[in-house]
Amino acid sequence: MKIILDAGHGCSTPGKRSPDGMREYEFNRAVASLAKEMLGKYQNTEVFFAHSDERDVPLAERTSLANNQNADCYVSIHANAYGTGGWNSAGGIETYVYPSKPREALALAQKIQRNLISSTGLRDRGVKTADFHVLRETKMTAVLVECGFMTNKEEASLLRTPLYRKRCAQAIVKAIAEQYGLRKNDKIKQYKVQVAFPEKQLAEKLAGNLKKDGFNATIIE
C-alpha cells in the first residue's frame, strides 16, 4: 500500500505562522515525519512525502507526485489559523474531504477526527468539506487535517511540544491502520554477536552471564 504524507506549505511560506513566530510547516513536518516512522512498522506499506524542506512545493506538483505514484491514500497535515494575525479564541480540530464526500475518504476522515479528539482532548469541530486542491486533484482517497489553531495561544503552545506532535501522528496512523486493515510487522530483526576464546571455560562463563540477562547464547566448538 502506498501512502502519501503531505506536510502543508513550506518553511518560508509567507504568513503561515503563529503570532509569536512559530512556522506552521515546523509542526506539519514534524507530525509527517513521526507518522512515516510509525507507518514503517506495518506490513506492505510504502510512505512518500509530497513536501520538501528545501522549498514550498506547489500544490500541482504535490498532487502530480501522488497520482504518478498510484498511491492509495493521501493525508495532508496542517495547523489551523483564524483572524488577521493576532491571538483569538478559535480552537479545535477539523478534518476535510472533497465536497462530493467520497465514501472511503469520508470514512478515513471520520476515523482521523475521532482519534485526534480522543488523544488530544481538543474541541471537536467535525468532518467538513472543501474544494481544496489536494482533495480535488488527487486520484486516490485524500483527506486534509487541521490539528489545532496556531492563532489560539493555548493550542499554539501544544503545537510546539514533541508530545502533542507525537499524539497527532499516532492518531493519524491509527486511523489509516484501521481504515485499511494494516498489520504490524511481527518479525523483529535479530543481531548476532560472535566472540572467540582460547579456553572453553571462558566461553561457558560468558554464555552463562548472557543467559542470566535473558539472552540466548550458544557455544560452538
Automatic annotation (TrEMBL):
Domain MurNAc-LAA intervals: 63-177
SUPFAM superfamilies, alphabetized: Zn-dependent exopeptidases (SSF53187)
Classification via InterPro entries: MurNAc-LAA_cat, N-acetylmuramoyl_amidase_3
EC number: 3.5.1.28
GO BP, one annotated term: peptidoglycan catabolic process
This protein's record includes keyword Repeat: no
Enzyme class: hydrolase
Pfam families: Amidase_3
GO cellular component assignments: outer membrane-bounded periplasmic space
Keywords: Hydrolase
Source superkingdom: Bacteria
Gene Ontology MF: a single term: N-acetylmuramoyl-L-alanine amidase activity
PANTHER family in UniProt: N-ACETYLMURAMOYL-L-ALANINE AMIDASE (PTHR30404), N-ACETYLMURAMOYL-L-ALANINE AMIDASE AMIC (PTHR30404:SF0)
Name of this protein: N-acetylmuramoyl-L-alanine amidase
Annotated source species: Cytobacillus firmus (Bacillus firmus)
Taxon lineage: Bacteria, Bacillati, Bacillota, Bacilli, Bacillales
